[in-house]
Design goal:
Strand content: over 45%
Helix content: under 10%
Number of strands: 19
Number of helices: 2
Oligomer: single chain
């Protein structure tokens, strides 16, 4: 609430504004990782939920060498993160605005190494942690921003000790108007009213935040997994989502899920080994992180008016691992395309039951491309949103400096027709008594 009150709207964009950016990055690794500091690159996508407050997701890639120089393989470092950001403008002049920003969230730090020489080895590890961000931004014309930023990623469960990486970024952000791009009405201070956090609006407003949790049942491709001895079976998992409505129809949404699945390879004959480098594990951790652009089709649901169909598509990262309790933690990951179709059934002004079908296609999986399906069910909670400004309120007919609803807006009392200096209700307002005039002198 303090951030909401302090975030001045001088440089901040209106709720529902899209944030798209790219950057170069320099990473300083924790000493426990034995990795040389290196340059990389990445991108971010987000949206404003209130003036000066936005959600964003970010991914980057860095490739470099080991610090000790004894290894012949290179490493690849690819963190992905989601953050809540707050902007604090401090300067504004003709088309130029500047400000500071801070934020924080969660991060997945992943490391991969590939040894091309014999023996060929592919290794992968990852950990979850927290992230803090602070930086400076300068906007030009309200649509393009130079952004300088420092990040710290803290991984509490890394081996052998907790690790802390520092990243320094420089790049550009772009804030396009989705209303204009898709034939809608441009969003501006003139067309949007104040941000509201609880009301009975039937459909989402620009900047509305959708938060939800869900249970998922996954149908796994026969080739899914991290090697031939570790192919996950169908099973149940759970996850969460966060989305921001750019317009009442268009929404950018990110979600993540985790499913501890049984190893289907253990059912085959002959049974795979349970020891050695290519051993089979009882349980396989299956997780995904997706970012999509959804389109919503509102309809009047049988439980309420705030219901809609939705369809969308985007990108997904799919991870398979043996779990945290495995010392060498064999795992793998891939990137692909994700599609979603579903329905929201509103049964309260800001709450809806949501049922979705999801398909994730991974073109570069081994030995073949994989296609995983999932069915999800859960609840969504809707917060915030900027109401349409609407026509200006009527002003008082008798006094244009006050509103018509002002108690002081009252019709002026009629004036005395015989004496305009007093009101008609004044006791002295009386018709003059006619007196006969002198016929010889009409002045008396």
């Amino acid at each position: 609430m303090a951030a909401l009150l302090l975030a001045a709207p001088v440089v901040a964009q209106q709720p529902g504004t899209l944030v798209v950016g790219g950057f170069g990055q320099y990473t300083m690794f924790d000493d426990n990782l034995s990795l040389k500091d290196a340059f990389g690159y990445g991108g971010r996508v987000g949206a404003f939920i209130a003036p000066g407050i936005w959600l964003e997701a970010e991914g980057s890639s860095t490739q470099g060498d080991w610090r000790n120089g004894t290894r012949t393989d290179d490493y690849k470092y690819g963190p992905i993160s989601a953050r809540l950001m707050f902007g604090f403008p401090f300067s504004s002049m003709a088309g130029f605005n500047a400000g500071f920003h801070v934020g924080g969230g969660a991060v997945l730090s992943s490391y991969r190494y590939i040894r091309e020489t014999a023996p060929v080895v592919n290794g992968y590890s990852y950990n979850y942690g927290v992230e803090g961000a602070a930086g400076f931004n300068a906007t030009f014309g309200g649509f393009t921003a130079l952004r300088l930023q420092a990040l710290v990623d803290y991984m509490p469960t890394s081996e052998p000790d907790a690790t802390m990486n520092f990243r320094f970024q420089a790049g550009l952000d772009f804030w396009p108007s989705i209303g204009n791009l898709f034939g809608g009405t441009a969003m501006s201070p003139a067309t949007l009213g104040p941000v509201v956090w609880w009301d009975d609006t039937p459909q989402p407003l620009p900047g509305t935040l959708e938060l939800g949790g869900f249970v998922q049942y996954s149908f796994m491709d026969d080739n899914a997994g991290f090697n031939a001895n570790n192919r996950p079976d169908d099973g149940i998992g759970y996850g969460g989502r966060a989305g921001v409505f750019l317009t009442p129809n268009w929404e950018i949404e990110g979600d993540g899920q985790w499913s501890p699945l049984d190893n289907a390879s253990l059912d085959r004959t002959p049974r795979p080994p349970t020891t050695g480098r290519f051993r089979a594990f009882e349980t396989i951790d299956y997780s995904t992180f997706a970012l999509r652009l959804n389109y919503n089709f509102p309809f009047a649901g049988f439980l309420g008016s705030n219901s809609s169909f939705l369809i969308g598509g985007g990108v997904v990262r799919t991870n398979y691992g043996a779990g945290d309790d495995t010392p060498d933690r064999p795992a793998t990951y891939n990137y692909g395309a994700s599609g979603i179709a579903g329905v929201r059934i509103g049964f309260a002004p800001r709450v809806a039951l949501r049922i979705d079908g999801v398909v994730d296609y991974m073109p570069n999986s081994e030995p073949e491309a994989t296609l995983n399906y999932a069915v999800r069910g859960g609840l969504s909670l809707f917060l915030g949103g900027a109401q349409p400004a609407g026509p200006p309120p009527p002003v008082c007919t008798w006094n244009s400096s006050i509103l018509a609803s002002d108690p002081n807006c009252r019709a002026p009392e009629a004036r005395c027709q015989w004496n305009s200096n007093i009101t008609a209700s004044d006791p002295n307002c009386r018709a003059p008594v006619a007196q006969p005039r002198c016929q010889w002198n009409n002045n008396i």
